[in-house]
Amino acid sequence: MSSYILLYPLFLPLIAGIVCLLIPRKGIKEGLSLGVSLTTFILALIIFTAKELVFTR
């Protein structure tokens, strides 16, 4: 698993929120936010069910 996997659920909604502020159409905003929310949820499930999680510095 990637060492940056914990950063994806943090920055993905942040970037999508900034993009949603720049998009004028409401339907596209709702679709983008729903897609990003679903993706973040799936990433959270992958992180919490991973067996090989080890804290390293």
UniProtKB/TrEMBL annotation:
Keywords: Membrane, Transmembrane, Transmembrane helix. The chain crosses the membrane at residues 6-24, 31-50. This is NADH-Ubiquinone oxidoreductase (complex I) chain 5 N-terminal domain-containing protein. It comes from marine sediment metagenome. The lineage of its organism: unclassified sequences, metagenomes, ecological metagenomes.
